[in-house]
Design goal:
single chain, 203 residues, alpha+beta, five-stranded antiparallel beta sheet, 5 strands, 43% helix
Length: 203
């Protein structure tokens, strides 16, 4: 065998070893997560595939129900049992979804095998007060059909806890008001809770 051919075979062997090493050290990753829209409460399942930190495929499937015990939703807060379409009915425009991730299932696949892990992102938990207040808005709107009160309550919520908030203020207070909104049966009761929202400060 000539020196040139020997060098080519050696380089080819090194290349194969390098490729195999890369495929072992840097596995393909698949992450399925459960998410909630922080504007309208639309639930969704997100699926992302990546390699070397680069996402090469993604999918978003809207679904308001729980996906079962093996679903990533198992590791998320309770999925609101409500109709996300109320957002458009109240505000007169389609929702520009802003999903906050909850539970996830991560699978890593390499030449030596597959590893799987389940867990939960903090996003959904951090914005749980916003989710709870919106649940309350939907309940109040169904009970009173007051778009004016619903719009104003959304406005106060956006002031106190916008969807892009870095810090969460008045967490306990918002959770409390959100839960009490779910028991409102009249516009007068709703107006009182709206006044409480207005009294809260972002500090």
């Amino acid at each position: 065998m000539s020196m040139t051919k020997r060098r080519k075979w050696t380089l080819a062997a090194y290349l194969v070893i390098a490729v195999v090493g890369i495929l072992i050290i840097f596995p393909f990753k698949s992450i399925r997560s459960s998410a909630i829209c922080a504007n309208c409460l639309q639930h969704a399942y997100l699926h992302e595939k990546s390699w070397l930190g680069v996402t090469y495929a993604s999918d978003c499937r809207l679904a308001q129900g729980h996906g079962g015990i093996m679903s990533s939703a198992t590791f998320s807060p309770a999925i609101p049992q409500t109709d996300p379409k109320l957002y458009e009915e109240i505000l007169g425009q389609p929702c520009q979804h802003c999903f906050k991730k909850g539970g996830f299932g991560r699978t890593s696949t390499s030449l030596i095998g597959t590893l799987h892990a389940d867990g939960s992102y903090v996003e959904w938990h951090r914005f749980l007060p916003r989710v709870t207040v919106i649940e309350g808005i939907y309940h109040c709107y169904r009970a009173t059909r007051s778009k004016d009160l619903a719009t104003r309550t959304y406005g106060e919520l956006d002031r106190l806890l916008p969807v892009d908030a870095d810090e969460i203020w008045s967490y306990k207070e918002l959770m409390d008001i959100g839960n009490r909104l779910k028991a409102v049966s009249s516009e007068e009761e709703w107006e009182k809770l709206l006044l409480e929202l207005r009294s809260l400060k972002c500090e």
